[in-house]
């Protein structure tokens, strides 16, 4: 046999050197795979993928994206959660289409869409966005927003898709809940089905922009559970917009968009808004070093918050007993039910309106305005013009300013029944409403007021 060349000898030495090193590293490579340590960084690039056990972590270590099983379920979902204890999921991609095993993969399609694939490579979920941007990447931001962008772009105006536009049951700071009027995109919260099932549940928290914007909690069969009351230029007439100790809410309302958003006020305090399985909208707070979320408030907050608690033409006052009464000029439709504190049948007029002389209005101050069902709106009228317009129409049951700023402006008129009216005193601005009464009822109100003044005098 011939003598081996120097090159062959060197290759043999190099191979013998490599093998022990590989043998040394292999157990650690297996261990890393088993432990499922986080995928490097906060960004997934085209050509890369994430498997079950790997995660993206936002740059500030606030949020994590990966696969999880909720509660006692064995199904797997792709989601985003706070990187804290307890693990708190805030967004789910495939909430209606779970994976049956741990063989899911998050990756890009050739045209730039982000997709979740199962073991057989079938698409379980897709961002439904195409590659309008070259060299697209997915990045988990420290706000908890998963965005698709060009690899050299960081502007939110250049995102081709973002999870903030498609919330699950949670609103995070900086997330808009409402509607983009230019594109038609609507963002709303939907409760989970149960603690073990993140599929869409029985309730939604969404914008109702009929007339004036108001937000409502509504069931999947379209029954309203709660509404904020219409926006009156300062706040929703039945929900305060005053900043709390931990967050500052804001309404963006212009020709191209209507949405509700909030920003945090305290470092070291994390806050979120969640719609739970029972249809309660809750603000929860988590303080660094804590192991639990504290409920700051829940909505509906009291019985008068429940939609139409006192039925049609009823007035709810939470500090009175009983809490429901008929508006002046109305009487219980079913006195027997009202005696049993069942007010759902509401109230009916004692005397019908007929546009006769002497009809007028009773002023109620500090209220959440009734629901905008059968109504008329003119934002340019004065209150006196609104009153005159209401008197011209025999079906007009009440009127109010649509904007309380600067002494009041605009005109809202209600026709037919008054639904979901409650007492709600304002802090800086009070919302008033004027209820129409026949001449005889108006005279009785004046007489009762005179008697009250007389009694107080003596």
Describe the structure.
This protein has 458 residues and is mostly beta strands. The chain folds into 3 domains: 36-163, Agglutinin, subunit A, CATH 2.90.10; 167-301, Agglutinin, subunit A (Orthogonal Prism); 305-457, no CATH class. The chain has 4 helices and 35 strands. The strands form 9 sheets. A 5-stranded antiparallel β-sheet has the order 29-35-32-33-31. The radius of gyration is 30 Å and the shape is elongated. Residues 1-38 and 449-458 have low confidence and may be disordered.
Name its key features.
single chain, 458 residues, mainly beta, Agglutinin, subunit A, disordered C terminus
Supply the helix-strand structural class.
Answer: mainly beta
Strand order of the largest sheet: 29-35-32-33-31
Number of domains: 3
Compute the average pLDDT: 87
Beta-strand content estimate: 35-45%
Short précis:
The protein has 458 residues and is mainly beta. The protein is built from 4 helices and 35 strands. The protein is elongated and about 80 Å long.
Secondary-structure blueprint:
Elements: H1 6-35, E1 43-45, E2 49-51, E3 56-57, E4 63-68, E5 77-82, E6 88-92, E7 105-108, E8 114-117, E9 123-126, E10 136-140, E11 146-150, E12 161-162, E13 170-171, E14 177-180, E15 186-187, E16 189-194, E17 197-208, E18 214-219, E19 224-227, E20 247-253, E21 257-264, E22 269-275, E23 281-287, E24 294-299, E25 314-316, E26 324-326, E27 330-332, H2 335-339, E28 347-349, E29 360-365, E30 367-368, E31 375-378, H3 383-392, E32 396-400, E33 411-415, E34 421-423, E35 432-437, H4 439-457
Parallel strand pairs: 25-34
Antiparallel strand pairs: 1-10, 2-7, 3-4, 4-5, 5-6, 7-8, 8-9, 10-11, 11-12, 13-22, 14-15, 14-21, 16-17, 17-18, 18-19, 20-21, 22-23, 23-24, 25-26, 27-28, 29-35, 30-34, 31-33, 32-33, 32-35
């Amino acid at each position: 046999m011939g003598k081996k060349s120097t090159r062959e000898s060197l290759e043999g030495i190099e191979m013998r050197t490599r093998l022990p090193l590989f043998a040394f590293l292999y157990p650690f490579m297996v261990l890393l795979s088993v432990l499922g340590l986080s995928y490097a960084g906060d960004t997934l690039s085209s050509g890369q993928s994430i498997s079950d056990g790997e995660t993206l972590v936002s740059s500030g270590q606030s949020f994590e994206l990966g696969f999880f099983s909720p509660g006692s379920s064995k199904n797997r979902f792709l989601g985003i959660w706070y990187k804290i204890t307890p693990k708190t999921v805030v967004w789910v991609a495939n909430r209606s289409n779970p994976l049956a095993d741990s063989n899911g993969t998050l990756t890009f399609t050739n045209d730039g869409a982000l997709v979740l694939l199962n073991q057989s490579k079938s698409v379980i979920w897709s961002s439904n966005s195409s590659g309008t941007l070259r060299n697209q990447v997915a990045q988990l931001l420290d706000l908890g927003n998963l965005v698709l962008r060009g690899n050299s772009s960081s502007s939110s105006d250049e995102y081709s898709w973002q999870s903030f536009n498609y919330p699950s049951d949670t609103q995070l700071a900086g997330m808009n809940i409402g509607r983009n009027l230019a594109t038609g995109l609507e963002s709303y919260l939907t409760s989970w089905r149960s603690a073990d099932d993140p599929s869409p549940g029985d309730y939604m928290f969404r914008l109702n922009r009929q007339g004036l914007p108001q937000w409502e909690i509504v069931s999947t069969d379209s029954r309203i559970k709660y509404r904020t009351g219409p926006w009156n230029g300062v706040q929703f007439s039945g929900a305060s917009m005053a900043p709390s100790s931990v967050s500052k809410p804001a309404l963006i309302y212009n020709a191209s968009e209507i949405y509700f958003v909030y920003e945090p006020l305290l470092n070291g305090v994390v806050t979120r808004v969640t719609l739970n399985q029972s249809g309660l909208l809750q603000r929860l707070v988590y303080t660094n070093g804590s192991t639990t979320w504290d409920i700051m408030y829940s909505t509906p907050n009291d019985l008068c918050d429940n939609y139409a608690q006192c039925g049609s033409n009823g007035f709810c006052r939470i500090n009175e007993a009983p809490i429901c009464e008929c508006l002046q000029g109305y009487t219980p439709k079913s006195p027997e039910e009202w005696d049993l504190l069942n007010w759902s049948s509401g109230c009916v007029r004692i005397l019908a309106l007929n546009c006769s002389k002497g009809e007028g209005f009773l002023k109620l101050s500090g209220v959440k305005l009734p629901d905008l069902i059968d109504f008329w709106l003119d934002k340019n009228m004065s209150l006196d013009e609104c009153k005159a317009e209401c008197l011209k129409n025999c079906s007009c049951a009440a009127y109010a300013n649509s904007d309380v700023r600067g002494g009041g402006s605009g005109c809202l008129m209600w026709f037919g029944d008054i639904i979901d009216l409650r007492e709600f005193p304002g802090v800086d601005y009070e919302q008033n409403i004027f209820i129409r009464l026949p001449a005889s009822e108006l005279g009785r109100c004046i007489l009762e007021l005179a008697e009250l003044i007389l009694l107080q005098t003596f």
